[in-house]
Amino acid sequence: MKYLFDDLALAYEKPATNGRLKAQNSDFCVDEIMPIETSGEGEHLWLKIEKDGANTDWVAQQLAKCAGVKSMAVSYAGMKDRHAVTTQWFSLHLPGMDDPDFSELKTDEFKILQQARHNRKLKRGALSGNRFQIRITELEGDIESLDKKLQLIKQNGVPNYFGEQRFGREMGNLLKAEKMFNRELKKVKKQQRGLYLSSARSWIFNQILSARIKQENWLTPLPGDVFMLNGKSACFNGDGEDAEEIVKRLLDKEINITSCLWGEGESMATQEVLVLENSIAEEFKILTDGLESARLKQERRASRLVPGNLNWEIKGDVLEIEFDLPTGTYATMLLRECVEVTS
């Protein structure tokens, strides 16, 4: 099957402005929002690191080598783009060991900003979110429409699509998922299996959301909809709820409509929404059957992404924009709605 990311529907009119993203690494800055305070003692050394043009795994390897520990002793909350300037946390498990002498690390690609001991390791997904500061240069087109589009985004949010990077180069993770489900891959490592499963589930979610955008009801409740508290994972079915109150809470961005993350088990959706989601699933039966066979449980994800602290300034042919996003969401999906970018 051929998978085309660009076929996903836009929530707003096609951008009338284009520009250049990442003319240099400092045009794309990301800072992790860490909700955990270190205790000051324990077997784990936490490091806040700023990296510029470095791969997350490579930084972890350099830290392990300098500390004289195995790579599995180093952990981090999430991956960060190589072609960017990012700050992120790492932790090293150093039981009975002194803090390493990191002065031996001679590289321009990253530097340690802060370090502290803690009694627990840093786990994947431990972040509450990320703060973005992005500069798009060489703007061309209708600049006035860009400002209006950003006002709309601030008011209503954007589709919470999984970004293109989720699916690998040329959608390779999806193609590998198909082969894995068809038993055409003889040996699949645990990490690769996880990537293929998540890409398949993400694709189904994106298709459901895209269908609702095309129907112009992605922000309009339908019979059988399931809602999620903004910034939370708790869900509730809207059947029997006061319709006017639901609409008000959506407008206030207190709650969001959700779409399905496919897996086995009974869906929380009912009526029209259940029919819609099942019809999309039927189009990609090889993926949905594979996800069920892998025993992934059916879950929900907010269909709308509401950026926090969204601010911007347009200076001539440069857009400077900053915002906060929860973990597991994609800044590129916000940019996709307001400006066509080239790297």
Automatic annotation (TrEMBL):
Responsible for synthesis of pseudouridine from uracil-13 in transfer RNAs. It catalyses: uridine(13) in tRNA = pseudouridine(13) in tRNA. One of its GO terms (molecular function) is tRNA pseudouridine(13) synthase activity. InterPro entries: PsdUridine_synth_cat_dom_sf, PsdUridine_synth_TruD, PsdUridine_synth_TruD_CS, PsdUridine_synth_TruD_insert, TruD_catalytic, TruD_insert_sf, TruD_pseudoU_synthase. GO terms for biological process: tRNA pseudouridine synthesis. The active site is at residue 81. Its EC number is 5.4.99.27. This is tRNA pseudouridine synthase D. Pfam families: TruD (PF01142). Keywords: Isomerase, tRNA processing. The keyword ATP-binding does not apply. SUPFAM superfamilies: Pseudouridine synthase. The gene is truD. Belongs to the pseudouridine synthase TruD family. The lineage of its organism: Bacteria, Pseudomonadati, Pseudomonadota, Gammaproteobacteria, sulfur-oxidizing symbionts. One of its GO terms (cellular component) is cytosol. Residues 157-305 form the TRUD domain.
